[in-house]
Amino acid sequence: MKNRFTFMKTSFYLIILLACFSQPHSVFAQRSAADYFEEGNTKAAKGDFPDAIQAYSQVIALNPQHAPSFFNRGLAKANLKDHRGANADYDQAILLNPSVAMYYQSRGVSKSLQEDHRAAIMDFTKALELSPDDAKSYYNRGVSYAKTQNHRNALSDLDKALSYNPDDLAALYARGNCKQDLQDFVGSLADFSRVIQLSPKRIGAYVGSGLAKIELGDYQGAAADYTRAIEINPDDAGFYNKRGFAKNKIDDYKGAIMDFDKTIQLDPESFEAYYGRGFSKGKLNDQRGAILDLNKAIELKNMNVGDPKKIVYSTKLTREILDGLRNQVKERVKIENLTAERAEAYYIRGINKTSIGDKKGAIDDFTTAVELNPTYSNAYFARAMSRSSNGDQMGAILDFTSSIKLRSDFSEAYYLRGILKNSLGAVNEGCLDLSKAGELGYQQAYKVISSYCTTPASAD
């Protein structure tokens, strides 16, 4: 959803009444000023904001010290999205009467809508100094904190707002998003679930709930949430894309392809959908179709596309036993979130190229993946496999080492580095790697140890 955090505006009708009845008619220079003020209130109540502005301007011309008219004119301008003009009127209202909390709150909302969130926070803080129990100001300040990435303070303010009204939909929804930003997916899910209970057609809550469930590993539940979002709005490409992602996670590759097809139909430039569909096709052994889709995933709207770095390979080392042991290791390929650099798409395309025997193309893709994301352990591991298969055993050892540095529990990387070192004569180092692999739970390592590590260790 584009607008994860929205501001709570001051109720126009409430302010009109307050402004109207809190001021005795004697404050006006003449009776007609009161008439203009009432006219402005009536026009604003009907949504006729341009004429309301004209009426309030007449009041101001007759009584330039009437703060409520500046304030109400500011509200009318804000309703016409003239936030700069609204702020100028709020400024004047505050200058004339600096003790009214709602003036600061409304100015804070207009500043926030102009992306001036730090100034807005100052206004909301002042409003709370004047009215410490105003839930709306806590909510709005919380949203402004969230907009400035200060999620801890945002959460504190949203908690405070909800302490006054535990079922406030806007505050629950905002807090759910805030908790997601703080990686509290359990708490986020609870908030979105409550929003859904209170307002079953609140589409953003299903999207937020789906995202939380994906992070918590409940992919079936996430798919169900996106299905509900699609039922409410069947024309949002992003909902199909997210459901396709969830289906990939539960190995429903055909269902995922249907969702990605729909995503691409609605949004032909969705590189994420091409990435997801490419992954699905690869899993269904349509490697060529996968590569075509992953080409699109990499090329569309991508500022990072460039020629992959060329690799110089060493001479081939043909050892049947080494190849046999290596080829027994199956890579555990799972779909991952596609980042802006699209390293994941290069990685999946490399896996599919490996499956059709395009070793060099696969290595190029894995190389690009690690250039785009130097912490991508799976891509180092996959490139190591390809390099070893292509005879570059030293290059493979370096890549397995990189995988291990990034993931200290990568048992398969220890195992394969161990057999490679062993095969190249570094028996002691190789057997220590195999021992570590077994310790991490890779049971095949013990079979290799029993066959190749029972002789006295050489001096490495």
Short structural summary:
This protein has 25 helices and no strands. The longest helix is centred in the first third of the chain and has 15 residues, at 31-45.
What does this structure look like?
With 460 residues, the protein is an all-alpha fold. Among the domains are: 1-165, Serine Threonine Protein Phosphatase 5, Tetratricopeptide repeat (Alpha Horseshoe); 320-452, Alpha Horseshoe (Serine Threonine Protein Phosphatase 5, Tetratricopeptide repeat), CATH 1.25.40.10. The chain has 25 helices and no strands. Helix 1 (12-21) runs antiparallel to helix 2 (31-45) and helix 10 runs parallel beside helix 12. The model is unreliable at 11-30, 306-318 and 456-460 (pLDDT under 50).
Q: Tally the beta strands.
A: 0
What summary fits the major beta sheet? none
State the helicity in percent bands. over 70%
- CATH secondary-structure class of the domain at 1-165: Mainly Alpha
Strand content: under 5%
Mean pLDDT equals: 86
Helix tally? 25
Provide the CATH architecture of the domain at 1-165.
Answer: Alpha Horseshoe
Tell me, what's the shape?
elongated
Order of helices and strands: HHHHHHHHHHHHHHHHHHHHHHHHH
Structural class: mainly alpha
Query: Any idea what the radius of gyration is?
Result: 31 Å
State the end-to-end CA separation.
57 Å
- CATH homologous superfamily classification of the domain at 1-165: Tetratricopeptide repeat domain
- Please mark out the parts with pLDDT under 50 across 5 or more consecutive residues, or reply none: 11-30, 306-318, 456-460
CATH topology of the domain at 1-165: Serine Threonine Protein Phosphatase 5, Tetratricopeptide repeat
